[in-house]
Amino acid sequence: MPPLPRRSLRTLVRKLGANARPAQQKQSLAIRTLLCRDGDQDSLAAIISAGVIPPLVQLLAPRSADELWCDAAHALMALVAWNAANTATIAAAGAIPPLVQLLGTGS
């Protein structure tokens, strides 16, 4: 499948950062699906350049629904799986404490 145009990626990320839970769920699943199906480094770079990491980390907050936590955690995991260099970026965005908390909840 061809990668999404950058404009579409930015729109996806903007909606992911919205405060409307249905939109967040739809977008987090879409991003997770994109990341899991496409390990192409150019596509991953485009997704990261679109600004996906901060809103994914925000979805790890305790106030998020379980589905959002799960999709955000899976998307972040996929970013690391395809390119280990993303680990530092994700850690710098503050993902480690909420991920540890998520593991502690048993969710």
Write structural notes for this entry.
This protein is mainly alpha-helical and 107 residues long. Helix content is 72%, strand content 0%. The protein is built from seven helices and no strands. It has helices at residues 6-16, 21-37, 41-49, 53-58, 66-82, 86-92, 96-105. Helix 2 packs parallel to helix 5 (66-82). The chain is globular and about 35 Å long. 31% of the residues are buried. The model has no long low-confidence stretch (mean pLDDT 79).
What's the structural blueprint in terms of helices and strands?
Blueprint (H helix, E strand, L loop, with lengths): L5 H11 L4 H17 L3 H9 L3 H6 L7 H17 L3 H7 L3 H10 L2
Element order, helices and strands? Answer: HHHHHHH
Q: What's the total count of β strands?
A: 0
Instruction: Give a quick account of the main beta sheet: strands, pairing sense, barrel closure.
Output: none
Tell me the Rg in angstroms: 13 Å
Detail the poorly predicted runs: none
Distance between the termini: 32 Å
What fraction, in percent, of the residue positions are helical? over 70%
Sheet-strand content, in percent, reads under 5%
Overall pLDDT score: 79
Helix/sheet category: mainly alpha
The tally of helices reads 7
